[in-house]
Amino acid sequence: MEQQISLKKKLYDHCVSFVDQRIKNAKDAMESAQAAANDETKSSAGDKYETGREMMQQEMENNAIQLAEAQKLKEIILSINPGRSHTTAQSGSLVITNNGSFYITIGAGKIVMDGKDYFAIAPSSPLGMQLIDKSKGDSFELNTRKFVIEDIL
Asked: Rounded to an integer, what distance in angstroms lies between the CA atom of residue 26 and that of residue 100?
């Protein structure tokens, strides 16, 4: 049991790092775009200057959206207690199936831990929605693949 909680803690920590990196990347990109906008000087070609400023403004807005999305993911991940075990699949569960192991938290993709593949998926993803509220022994089909839940941690 303690080994299972340790595995979930490692997966949780990986997801936190994933979100922290996304937040850092978005902030860095915003700072870079702001610095570029500040460095832009008005040239004799006024239209070129305005087009450049507009493109930088759009880039800053896109980065702000990415930052807001990453901060929402951070809130989601911080609401999860990795030490809690579950009898039914829910946010924070590690679900072991015949077709892979899925950590229901955020969509962070494939995580290799101790030589084994795990997939961090969002509860709102198609697979996540199929897994939620299922119990050990339950099965379902998704994209012509049959999944059987072997364990829930």
From this structure: 31
State the pTM of this model. 0.85
* 3-class DSSP assignment, residue 27: helix
Residues with Cβ within 8 Å of residue 136, at least 6 apart in sequence:
87, 149, 150, 151, 152
Closest CA to 10 of 120, 99, 95, 87: 120
Report d(CA 51, CA 105) in Å as an integer.
41
CA angle 104–108–110, rounded 5-degree value: 90
Q: What is the pairing mode between strands 100-104 and 116-121? A: parallel
The pairs formed by 123-128 with CB atoms below 8 angstroms and a separation of 24 or more are 123/90, 123/91, 127/102, 128/102, 128/104
Q: What is the Cα–Cα distance from 1 to 129, expressed in whole angstroms? A: 26
Helical (H) or strand (E) element with 145: strand 145-152
Amino acid type, 65 = I
CB atoms within 10 A of CB 26: 20
Residue range 28-81, pLDDT digits in tens: 998 887 877 777 654 445 556 567 777 778 888 999 999 999 999 999 999 999
